[in-house]
Amino acid sequence: MKFNVFGLAALFCSVSLPSMAHSTALLSAPTKQAETLVVEALQRLESFDLNEALNIVSDLATRHPDYHLAQMMRADLLAIRAGNFALLDQVQSLYPITTGRLREEAQVRWQYAHTDEGLAETLLQSAVLKVGEQPYLIVVNLAKSRLYVYQNQAGQLNLLANYYISMGTAGAGKEREGDRKTPIGVYHITDWVPGHRLADLYGFGALPLNYPNVWDKALGRTGHGIWLHGTPSNTFSRPPMSSQGCVVLNNDEMSSLVTHFNIGLATPVLIVNQESDIQLYEAEKIEVLTEINAWLVEKGAPFNWQQVSVYRYPNEDGLYYATFPSLDKPDYLVHQYWRRGYDGGWHLVLETLDPKKILTRLS
Questions:
Q1: pTM of the model
Q2: Of 237, 259, 262, whose CA–CA distance to 250 is shortest?
Q3: Phi and psi (nearest 5°) for 31?
Q4: Which end of the chain is more exposed for a tag (fewer CB within 10 A), N or C?
Q5: Of 3-12, 196-205, 286-295, minimum mean pLDDT range
Q6: Which domain CATH number covers 261?
Q7: In the listed set 248, 272, 296, which residue is the last one of a domain according to the structure?
């Protein structure tokens, strides 16, 4: 069998994978998510069960005719079953970028299905020192092409959903206008723009973020218009690196953020680019929280410690980010940036007041 010409098959000879961490139990067809079916089809392909792989992707392509990955997998499997390998070579040579990006999507979804679920939990514990009273937290891991939705219940973060996402064509770490990268940092949702007010590119709608935030501006980073948004009406999902810097979900999942979870203004969005496990510094966590608490006490004005959120700022050595309602204007959010100084102590290095009222909610 000439699998070298079938791009998806390369996934299984180039990657050493651990044991399955996500359930692949067979479910009734109506309850299966598209990603589950893609992974199952790839598993069937790995075990050389081409007929069952074809049945799965054919069903998926029928139910989602706008799912380009499913359509490509179906076409490739039909060509393989017919022994028409020249057609595979021809399609790949005619559309190298399109087929390459779709294979990347298959690989990202396959690798996610074999990823240790502990990575997401370790990332959360390391990055989030304390959460205030915002009802939700969103964590985007660009390295895994995943978005995680957490609900805040009395300071405990419970995972509600996680979705495949696309990021900028140039990868992670936005620095300047037009670099087509997705920023790394802690941001907040500032608005809701429904799809009928936007071009079809944005699908169901968009949740704009406050990039560049005050830290980005202090470092000279430029650009604007970084949003969480949906996909065009003729596209079920986009390849993992295909946006101009935004974080893109498919329309059903974008809809769930707004209509089901009611993700609102000022919701924190933590964007990281984490490939593997990271260190947990419990002692440092206690130091930072103690220092911020002491600073607030010294202000002399009444405040509620339960409303304070503290995050380890991603991609910045020793930087921590705190937010809480303003003591003078409780409808506004204060942003603080703390860093360890040469004296070993923690110091407030930057502070600003958010121009957006935080009590506004999406309907």
A1: 0.87
A2: 237
A3: -95, -5
A4: C
A5: 3-12
A6: 2.40.440.10
A7: 272
